[in-house]
Write a structure and sequence with these properties.
There is one protein chain. The protein has two helices and 61 strands. Strand 58 and strand 59 form a beta hairpin. By secondary structure, it is mainly beta. Strands 1, 2, 3, 6, 7, 9, 14, 15, 16 and 18 form a ten-stranded mixed sheet that branches. It has an eight-stranded antiparallel sheet with strand order 5-4-8-17-10-11-12-13, with no helix packed on it. Strands 28, 31, 32, 34, 39, 40, 41 and 43 form an eight-stranded antiparallel sheet that branches. The N terminus and C terminus are likely disordered. The longest helix has 27 residues. The chain is rod-shaped, with a radius of gyration of 48 Å.
Length: about 775
Amino acid sequence: MKRKILVTILSGMLAICMSVSAVMMVSAVSGTSLVVGDDPMFTSTVDLTSEDAAAQFKGVFVGGSDRTVTAGDATQVWDFDAANGTVTSKASLVQDVNSVWSDWFYLYYTGAEYKNFYMEVTLQHVGLDAGWSGLAYGVEDSSKPAKGAAENPKGGLSFVQGDGKYTWHNLAINPSEWNDTGVIATNFNGLTDTVHHLKVYEGHMQYWLNDEDPIVIDVTMDAAALTSGNVGVAVTNKTVAVKSFKVTSLKSDGTVGSDDYIAPEQIQVTGIENGQTAELGKALDVSVSVLPQGASAEYTFTSSNPAAVYSGGKLYFKETGNYMLTFASRENAEVKTVIVVTVEGPQGYIAYPFTENTMAQFDPVFIAGGSGTGGIKVGWEEYFEIADGVLTTKGEGSGNVGNNYKALYFANRKTDNFEIVFSAKASGNNGWFGVQFAMADTTKAGNQDGVFAMMQHAAKRATFWGGPVTGVGGPHEIDSSYAPDAWNLFKIRVLNGVMEFYVNDMATPVLTKSAQSVSGEIALFVDDGCKVSFKDVYFGYLTDDGEVDAFVSVEAVTIENKIETAKVGDKITLDVTVAPETASDPTLLFASDNPIVASVNDKGEITCLMAGTTTITVTSKDNAKSDSFVLTVEENDEVVAVSSIEITNKVTEAKAGDELTLQVTVNPADASNKGLKYETSDSSVATVSNAGKVVFVKAGEVTITVKSEADGTVSDSFTVTVSEAGEAAEDGCSSSVAGIASIAVSFSLGVGAILAMKKRKETK
């Protein structure tokens, strides 16, 4: 067996210490370059703050000159303090306080056995007369000491003595009991935290403290010198605290991994399950492992819908729908896990599926030119079109940024704390689109009156740009993962004045800003610069704590008293049920597609006006759920008899030449025939026309009678004493016919004017 010891001394220090079986030389090995980074597959880091940390270790104590061995549960030899994250040797076990090396404490890690490994442990001595401290390896029997036990023939130690002198022991490499290098660790102070590094791989055993460079002990050895075994801590006398512990499996060339080929057998996916329902815009923490441990950890991720994104342990979806996700071993694609997921809109949010009916949930505004002011309300169909649930701007983008804004305000959604999730795809040379909010004046642009949360299509920059009232200023812009001509997922979150802008990555906002005021109306918007499509739009109310204030959407609207036929003059009050009963906004909108036949008011009251057919529709303001029925209105052929007639402007006296237009009330009001006949008892004294106009001709007494045209037995009458034109009435008062007549004429004119106005309004 060839044995050689290499001591690296790069700072000019040269130590030469020779023994019969070992040679020391200068070697160009660098301490810091030997540090091995963590690998999730091959690195085991023990959490010393865990309550079950002791279960991952075994403890052995060897005491005094008689070499008494105490072994078994780690807590027999070590004190575990989860609160402070330390494991401390029990000083009470020490038998020979005057000897620095007679009493040994071992703490063996039993999580795995290692042949080639890198170990990194932090130790701290407690007490000024502390002994030796270091690391153990090659332990095949964890109930025995690493040094001197026949059961551990290749057990070894790498440690520093109390003065910091590098020392090692391994009979399989060198039969000398102690291999004292004579090299002192730089600035060693055992009373402070000291990181011990031990790296063992084919032909090498390297040991150093902290990030010490230039001193590293590098012992060369035959490949067969070590066999697999447990690793751990080895210290002598008094009290030593372990403050961190981790070990990494290495290949024989010293790189992370394992020389033993392990075929992948299983892909383990946690954080999502087959058949699970996920939410649009919500990132899931998903981890993937190739099992068994040691198999190639590389794997692939594919999805039946490319709108699934898995990156950095986060899985999120840019579209609703069904997905088939496949995680497969890169080494063997047959080893895979397939997960089927249904993605729905975020729970508790208000959905805006784009149909012609749902557009009633928006208040469209068009702002002409590039000034950002002077907008007017318009019909959405003037600037947008709908196909297959996608809302798209008409025409092609002109590239004129900041011109002619088309805004779709969410009706009745004014709030300070909210979240909007939506998908959008834009094409063209330039343009802006996104969300504007905190709008006190809906006829202005976001950067004039409120806030723009917009995507710059050409520059691919997420931007906040606010007006003076909001205190946002700007534009504040940053590069993002936005992809032109492709569907992108966006989220705008506003909570207690803090604004967050997410682009595709739903786990981390790409841009965050604060505002002084965010109160106002909220809208989707796009300018003339590019052609934009929207879909999967969701609006969520947030509580002050940032939780979703769940909005219960209307699921169904049902008209309970649908009526197929009615008569002219009928009145019907609709009985409508909204489901569920807990719907947050049960407001209903009523409409008749032929209001000349039958009209319906905002209380659901139908008035049948003339014969014909119309469709009555009831639609929920939220979610545009609707129900309808066809109503046929027929002529009213039912005979309603006249019960009484009343002349309301009777007179008892008149003068020759006076005129009086009779005012007559027919009861009941819905009598089928309200026609009247007028009669005079003496036409030489007074005449009466078919329209009810009485003309008093000469002095005398006359009776005027009004009869029902349908039933002559129903009538009313009055008797008038007519005097000559120049005569006064017997009581000395002038005739009252002129005053009554003038009132009647005035009333008649007023009714005529009202009727004329009504007619013009109906035909306008």
